[in-house]
Design goal:
Elements: H1 3-19, E1 33-36, E2 40-44, E3 49-56, E4 59-71, E5 74-79, E6 82-86, E7 88-95, E8 98-103, E9 106-110
Antiparallel strand pairs: 1-2, 1-9, 2-3, 3-4, 4-5, 5-6, 7-8, 8-9
């Protein structure tokens, strides 16, 4: 294999690996699940996939990508240089029999 081909294969492998989400660590297991409010949904899988949708008036914001890491209670989703940080002002907590958390200023309830 030529040196150029080997470099190309290594670059492609690095790109593929950077697109893979990181599994949710055990200490953040409460984040896993489907969370909802009237105008927002957030799904976090144990394997590290995140799907987000928020409707505000006539505009919709969506993010669907791999979990990169947690930064305290916040979490980062995306690919390499294209990522977004979700600000968690209240980590998952139990309120009666419902699980809730506050993400980007919105109180979400975990679907059962």
């Amino acid at each position: 294999m030529s040196r150029l081909a080997a470099i190309g294969c290594a670059a492609a492998a690095a790109l593929v690996l950077s697109a893979c989400g990181k599994p949710v660590p055990a200490e953040k297991a409460a984040y896993v699940g489907e969370w909802r409010s009237q105008n927002m949904t957030l799904a976090i899988s144990q394997e590290g996939r995140v799907a987000y949708k928020r409707v505000s008036g006539s505009s919709t914001t969506s993010v669907d990508g791999p979990l990169q890491r947690f930064e305290g209670d916040n979490f980062v989703v995306g690919f390499a240089f294209l990522s977004t940080t979700f600000a968690v002002s209240k980590a998952p907590y139990q309120d009666g029999r419902h699980w809730k958390m506050v993400v980007d200023g919105v109180e979400l309830t975990k679907a059962e």
